[in-house]
Amino acid sequence: MNVFRNVLRAAALAMGVTATMMAHAAYPERAVSVVVGFPPGGTNDIVARVISAELEQRLGQAFVVENRPGAASMLSANHVQRADPDGYTLLVIASGGLVVNPAIYAPERVTYDSEKDFRPIALLAEFPFVLVTGPNLKDIKTLAEFVEHAKQSEVPLTHGSASSTMQLMAELFAKESGISYTNVPYKGSGPTATDLMGGQTDFAFLDTAAIVPLVESGRLQALGVTTIERSAALPDVPTIDEAGIEGYNAPIWTALMAPAGTPDEVVETLNGALEEILADQKVIDRFASLGMSTGAADPQLLANMISEELQRWKQVAQEAGIRIE
């Protein structure tokens, strides 16, 4: 009898394992929610919608973008952190939400751990910010002239900052160039650019999608991009590194994350599709039109980036005395 029971138990276990494997292999069996911490229409929202549409075509189920803006992406991150780790709730999040928030906010404000509470899936896109000036500095034509002017100015230049990420970009630049400035916070790239064009501030670090038309029309002047390579959207604008601040490299990126504990099979399915998507020329061209380059479906690469940039921006914030309680 005991032998018979053991056989039945073994058979049941085997059936359970087989059923689990089949369930994972069938992923996705229903609609997937793709949560974005920004309102519709912004860069990260566009990335999420492009990627979701492509995943839907390849995997045969709906990938539905769900906008949950607020608290510098912390609302969306908290929502996904608490979701079931089954692959049916994913997070599209900018690097600021993963590596800047923990650097500048008090621990009790950031209720998630970027390394422990999420499972990296893929780096979706990278793009530079651009150091731009307005009419207050209309005679400044190069980054070297900008730095020299800032050092000689009796009153620190004013920097319009639409996010904490942009402020940290400016802090890193100030540290490595030896200038000082006064930060002026704004609630978005639009108001930041408007006041810069109106002469209320002197310079700003803004995303390419927000400023390319303004640079092309001559209303703003681009002096340098924050990545180590030039932007396809602004090919004539030098990198900050090649313009004289050697080693300056501060890309912005967007990642796809899942709750910690999401099964390997789910991640592998998503990675397989994303490898094709990120190599698809129409996706490459769509991202390029926004001043972005496609990333890589490499979870370990993304995990390493999160770890390294967490330490980097924590150091920058600490040295600058930036802390939000």
Overview of this protein structure:
It is a single chain. This protein has 325 residues and is α/β, with parallel strands linked by helices. The protein folds into two domains: 31-127 and 253-320, D-Maltodextrin-Binding Protein, domain 2; 129-225, Periplasmic binding protein-like II (D-Maltodextrin-Binding Protein, domain 2), CATH 3.40.190. The chain is 45% helix and 19% strand. The chain contains eleven helices and eleven strands. The chain has helices spanning 2-25, 43-59, 74-81, 95-104, 143-152, 164-177, 189-197, 208-216, 264-279, 281-288, 299-320, and strands at residues 32-36, 63-67, 89-94, 118-127, 129-133, 157-161, 181-185, 203-207, 221-225, 252-259, 293-296. The strands form two sheets. It has a six-stranded mixed β-sheet with strand order 2-1-3-10-4-11, sandwiched between helices. A five-stranded mixed β-sheet has the order 7-6-8-5-9, with helices on both faces. Helix 2 packs across helix 9 (264-279) and helix 4 packs parallel to helix 11. The protein is globular, with a radius of gyration of 23 Å. The termini are far apart. Mean pLDDT is 90; it is low at 1-24.
